[in-house]
Specification:
Blueprint (H helix, E strand, L loop, with lengths): L1 E2 L2 E2 L3 H4 L6 E2 L2 E2 L5 H17 L3 H15 L5 E3 L1 H7 L4 E6 L10 H14 L3 E6 L3 H13 L2 E7 H6 L1 H9 L3 E5 L6 H15 L3 E3 L10 H9 L1 H14 L5 E5 L4 H7 L8 E9 L10 H4 L1 E5 L2 E5 L24 H9 L2 E7 H15 L5 H17 L3 E6 L7 H8 L3
Parallel strand pairs: 6-16, 7-8, 7-10, 8-9, 11-12, 11-16, 12-15
Antiparallel strand pairs: 1-2, 3-4, 5-6, 13-14
Helix pairs in contact: 3-5, 5-6, 5-10, 6-8, 10-12, 11-12, 15-16
């Protein structure tokens, strides 16, 4: 299978290149002193990822601590309710320890920090799942942990804030700007610039300067590897389509990785929020343009001055004004179709999955569920595999407060 001359059977050997580029996207646009620290991380990762000892320890952690592999579940009642004959399935990352996919890369990053002799891990979080996952990893490995979180998200995600604190992390409230995910990244990056000798910045998605888009994708690829094998075992064939939500895009790259070289349609779902007007959504791949922020080149939403635009989503984990550089690359190649769903569609899907299947999804994941339902109504036949990237425990108080019980 070729898309614009890219050979997907050798894709992971070629992308990113040695400088961290996926085509023209990616790279590392940071100050020289910090670049030295990034080079150290990249060299350590390239060494450790080939180590049988590291691989064995990570597999043991996934099996005995995280509870992997997570299952694929058939959504019989939801499929029947749509009535088109299309069968819906979900990859259950909500059953991963801590309730989301984020622990997949956090355990790997924390293990890398131990290998490098670091004493602290630093991170940002929006929905709180990355913060909880990193706090969990830090507790497991005996590391200090600072989590930067916008004050708006702290109010929306109180259960996850409490979990981080119980796990021993220091939650640092960020009040600048819109006080959401972008500002949390700004603050965490600034802290890392001060502490890079003793700490490692554990980026929470496939964003940031090289090697993080590659490293987080590699750790998250366990989702796609498992899901592909499980789906084949369950059905004897591959799904016709794979769907995942996209903010920065770690869960999506995780599951997409397993299917890029297969005759499978792949869909990334961005948050349209309240509508297409600037400031009402966070659909960077749909409405953005090429630009550099947080040390990497990708497609981003810009204001009239060319700076990162204000963004909004009902999902705290998706309100980021850019997407990972690999998503921008796959978007330009046409290998992945990126589309949108709005808040109303997302909340409807949240309640539909809960009532018909007994699975309460994270609001982020509900974007993918909403799109999977729309897709099932249009493709006529076949099967759709949705990455259920997290569970909705963290969102219930906010949902009830804002939308009530339906």
């Amino acid at each position: 299978m070729q898309y614009n001359s890219v050979e997907f059977d050798t894709y992971f050997k070629n992308y990113p290149d040695e400088k961290g580029f996926f085509g023209k996207y990616g790279g590392s646009y940071i100050q020289p002193e910090l670049q030295t620290a990034m080079n150290e991380i990249a060299a350590a990762y390239q060494t450790i990822c080939k180590s049988s000892k590291f691989i064995a320890e990570l597999r043991k952690i996934r099996r005995e601590f995280q509870g992997r592999p997570t299952p694929v579940s058939y959504l019989e009642r939801l499929s029947n309710s749509i009535g088109t004959g299309v069968q819906l399935y979900v990859k259950r990352e909500d059953l991963n320890h801590t309730g989301a996919h984020k622990l997949n890369h956090c355990m790997g990053e924390a293990l890398l920090a131990k290998y490098m002799g670091k004493k602290k891990v630093i991170a940002e979080t929006g929905a709180g799942q990355h913060g909880v996952a990193l706090a969990t990893a830090a507790a497991y490995f005996g590391l200090e942990c600072d989590i930067y979180m916008g004050s708006v998200d702290i109010q929306k995600q109180a259960p996850n804030v409490a979990r981080m604190k119980i796990l021993g992390a220091r939650v640092v409230e960020v009040t600048e700007g819109l006080a959401t995910l972008k500002e949390a990244v700004d603050a965490a990056f600034a802290a890392y610039c001060r502490e890079y000798k003793d700490a490692i910045y554990c980026i929470g998605s496939v964003v940031g300067p090289h090697p993080f888009p590659m490293m987080v994708r590699d750790f998250q690829s366990v989702i796609g590897i498992e899901a592909r094998a499980q789906f084949l075992e369950m059905t004897g064939e591959l799904p016709d389509a794979v769907v995942a939500c996209v903010g920065g895009g770690s869960n999506a790259m995780g599951i997409f990785s397993g299917f890029l070289n297969d005759p499978v349609d792949i869909y990334g779902v961005e948050p349209l929020g309240r509508g297409s007007r600037m400031g009402d959504h966070a659909a960077s791949l749909q409405y953005g343009e090429e630009g550099i922020m947080h040390g990497f080149n990708s497609i981003m939403l810009k204001d009239e001055n060319g700076e990162p635009a204000p963004v909004y989503s009902v999902a705290s984990g998706l309100d980021y004004p850019s997407s990972g550089p690999e998503h921008a690359f796959l978007h330009d190649l046409g290998r992945v179709k990126y589309d949108v769903v709005n808040d109303d569609e997302t909340i409807d899907a949240f309640y539909t999955l809960s009532r018909l299947e007994g699975i309460i999804p994270a609001i982020e994941s509900a974007h993918a569920v909403a799109y999977g339902i729309k897709l099932a109504k249009t493709i006529g036949k076949g099967s759709v595999l949705i990455n259920l990237s997290g569970r909705g425990d963290k969102d219930m108080d906010y949902i009830i407060r804002k939308y009530g019980i339906r």
